[in-house]
Automatic annotation (TrEMBL), chain A:
Single GO biological process annotation from the record: regulation of cell shape
UniProt protein name: Rod shape-determining protein MreD
Localization per record: Cell inner membrane; Cell membrane
High-level lineage: Bacteria, Pseudomonadati, Pseudomonadota, Gammaproteobacteria, Chromatiales
TM stretches of this protein: 6-24, 36-60, 99-120, 132-154
InterPro entries membership: Cell_shape_determining_MreD, MreD_proteobac
Membrane topology term: Multi-pass membrane protein
UniProtKB/TrEMBL annotation, chain B:
Domain Rod shape-determining protein MreC beta-barrel core: 125-270
Name of the protein this chain belongs to: Cell shape-determining protein MreC
Keywords noted in UniProt: Cell shape, Membrane, Transmembrane, Transmembrane helix
Cellular component GO terms held in the UniProt record: plasma membrane
PANTHER family attached to this UniProt entry: CELL SHAPE-DETERMINING PROTEIN MREC
Naturally occurring in which organism (per UniProt): Thiorhodovibrio frisius
Alphabetized NCBIfam families for the sequence: mreC (TIGR00219)
GO biological process per UniProt: regulation of cell shape
Amino acid sequence: MLAGRTPWVIVLTLGAAGFLSIVHMPDWAVDYRPQWTAMTVIFWITTLPDRVGVFWAFFAGLMMDVVTGSLLGQHALSFSVMGYLTVELEQRIALFRAWQQAVSIWLILTVERLLSLWVLSATNQPTPSLSYWTTTFVSMLLWPWFAAALRGLVRRLDLA
Amino acid sequence: MKPLFNHGPSAAVRMVIALALAFALIIADLHYRQLDVLRSSLAVTVYPLHFLAALPARIARDVENQVVSNMELRAENDRLHRENLSLRARLQRFASLESENERLRNLLGSAFKVGERVLIAELLEVDLDPYRQQVLVDKGALSGVFVGQPVLDANAVMGQVVRTNPLTSTVLLITDARHSLPVKINRNGLRSIAIGSGLVDQLNLLHVPKKADVRVGDLLVTSGLGGTYPPGYPVARVTEVRIEPGKRFATVSAEPTARLDRSHEVLLVWSLPKLMESGAMTKTDGEHAAAINSNLEP
């Protein structure tokens, strides 16, 4: 289904997102790190809904599990559900205004975090404090610029 | 061209498949060790990512090293020279003490560890899962690193290896909330277990009786029970002893002496395997320790 260079571009952007999610930051900034990989997955699903879907989300989550050294399957699970939500909501989101889009993205990202938290507590791992949720707001505020930048990339490379 | 009708299973079906896979992975990773092969082969594919992510910090450090002035280098050289001299002086005394200790222990009939082999590894400065106290080091299974291997820095115990990949390995720090480590107080030999708090600068001591002789400033060293850590290495200093009427035990917290958040180089230790089999005393210790060690599920 995916032809030409599109899958490579997606893989590269996911790799870049993975890089950004583990690159060393000062301690105070750690809570404000956006959910780069999740945002990238959402972007590709909303941009190429008939090509990118739940399985891409699953594999992106698996990459996150390996990269961050968390339990294998933890991010894969939350990303799969997040991918599904995005697939279902994608047509609606496309009609929204910018701020409405940002809010729905926040909702989806929050569901992802929620599931991740659930896996953490279900498997008896230490659960984080309230600052765990900061990242969803940071991602929401960043979303318009993030999407615009990636859209520029898509246009320049003439994908879609 | 956009296909008019989507072929293949619907998104919901796909999600169910993906969820089933994810659940299977989680359960397998929690309960069985077989997945380690999968994980380490996946880890090889993301190694470039880890390498790249560690690069900025490494470059920053190199640049810092480059621009350091001649004066500072001289000063540092002087300091190291003095330190080396005093360490050597102490080592002379240490050698004779060690042989005396060994002789005495031979008289008592208990086993004593003769020596250790160490490998210096460098920390890859990447931020792993922010809610666990883990670090990544740049030596892996190819260098002989194994799961359960103790990791030290120049000052004290840092943690143990919980996962090895061919080129890297993950170290669980002693402050992780799922890490526990058998310790004793250096001053009087009182034993306890140090549990990580999830904060980088705090350990808590488990089951310390209220009347126990623990004071602020006491040095905690590894007791060697559990068999993971060699005995006698410094771990932490007691920072607070609180007696609360409502609790059955004293609340004791300690601060790790290792520079957990600042070390760039760590030591991976191989204990010489001679110790475990000889001497009845160590055997009972080992059993006791196995019970303690089962507390730790990385």
